[in-house]
Structures are given as structure tokens and as C-alpha cells.
Amino acid sequence: MTTSPMTTNPLPRVVSPAEWQSALALHRAREKAATRARDALAAERRRLPMVKIGKDYVFEGESGPARLVDLFEGRRQLIVYHVMFGPTWQQGCVGCSMSVDNIGHLSHLHARDVSMALVSRAPQVKLAAYKKRMGWTVPWYSSNGCDFNVDFGVTVGEDEKSAVSVFLRDGDSVYRSYVTSGRGDEMLGTVWSYLDLVPFGRQEKWEDSPAGWPQTPAYDWWQRHDAYDDKPALTSTGA
After folding, report:
1. What's the confidence (pLDDT) of residue 2?
2. Beta partners for 204?
């Protein structure tokens, strides 16, 4: 470590350009290995089994009651961010709020047949007020009138926990395919990171996916968010 003449804070070593290039090359090789390892984990995740959701949960949405299947908005895959916001709280969890702040434009997920929703136990009137305060556009549903939070392990006694759950729809049948919590969701926030969680993945031909999975050439589906028609996209596998 070196010390800058302008501050007492420690700084990285200052080296020659050649030494810096050498150190960078070694580090980037490890970064590429980590990328390949994440690709392999995503491929494994796409092959995970699912569990059928047997209970008919009813949420309170911004436009009235909604069943779990309604949260898909007609698409086949759904990502639910379980935001910590208890019924008596006056505002959402600060960590969850930071995560929701980093959710990108939903049209990019919609283009890959993926919907996203927030779910919390606070009543809808509190959620709507906080959503307006934060300037969010992600649909937010209250589970205050059902057992959803308890059944999915994000409300334990008086404690609220954050998590991200992934669901797949086949007609009106809904299945849970994946869940992560704790530090598992701290790297989320880009369309790529979210698509790597869902059963069909990014749906690009380079991906290692099971036979019959919907796939298109890489880059072909990319659009500026105002160019999408924002309708369910890949429906070749049926709904």
C-alpha cells in the first residue's frame, strides 16, 4: 500500500504500466473463469425440478384482488421480489428498497416472456404510498390477507425476510422453480442477472439449455425499451 500526499487513506500500489498490465491480465483470467462458472450454474439452474403451487393465494393489487397466476400478466415466467414491509411498518426495508431501485426497465424482461412483481405483507394503501414516494413502476401486491409470506418462508413469527422467488406457469397451473435470499440476491439488478434465474434463461442460442427450450440468436431480440411492443413474446412452448 502507498499513501497519497493529499490524504492519509491507504491506496493501491503504484507500479509501471508493464507490471499493471501483467497483474490485470492475471486478474481478468480469474474473472473470465468466474463468468464461465456462473454460466454453468445458470445452466444447472435451468434444469432444476419444480414444485407445484397447490394453494390459491389471493393478493390485493393496485386494481383489486389478484391470484398468483394473475401476477404473470399473461407471460409464462414470473420473478417475485419478497420486499420486507410488515403490516405495522411505515416504510419498506432500506436494503430491499436499494435493490428495487436497481431493477431496470421491465420491457426487457417482458421481451423474454418474464414478468416481475413485488410482494409484501403491508396493506396495499401503504405499498401504494411508498411506491409513489420511491418512484417505482414494478407492480406491487399485498399478501396481507393470505398465507403466502408464511408459506414461502419470508415471514417467520414477527420477522420479515427478503428473498427472490421464480415461478413458471403452464395454463393456470403455477410452479416454483427457484428461490434465493441473503447474499444470493445482492448481485441482481440487470436484465441478464434476472434472466439467468428463470427456467428458460436468456433464451439465446449460445446458452446450454435443455432440448426444446425457446431460443433465438443472441442480440436479435435486443431493443431500446421504447421500441418493444411489450406483449408476451416467446409463446412457441404454449401457455
Report:
1. 53
2. 216
